[in-house]
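Quick question, first post here. What does this chain look like in 3D?
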Amino acid sequence: MQIEFDRDTCIGMFQCVAEWDGFEKDMDAGKAVLKGGEETEEDVFVAEIPEGKELDAKFSARSCPVDAIAVYDDDGEQII
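> Answer (accepted):
Ran it through. C-alpha cells below.
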C-alpha cells in the first residue's frame, strides 16, 4: 500500500500529523512533510505505508481538508 502527498496543495492544517506519525510539521514552510517520501514529480511525494499502519494512513488521508493525500492499494488502485 502506498501513500501520495501533494505538498503544493497542502495548506498546513496538520490534521494528517495528528492522525499518523508518517507526517510531520514543517513550521518554516507551513506545510506537512511525508516522512521517507520520495519526490516523484515536483512537490509530489510517495512512500510505502508500513505494515500495521494502513488504518492510520487512511485516517490521515481522509482528514486532509484539501485532499492533498491519496492512498493506493497494492494493485495501484486509489482507495482514498
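The chain has one domain: 2-65.
The longest helix spans residues 54-63.
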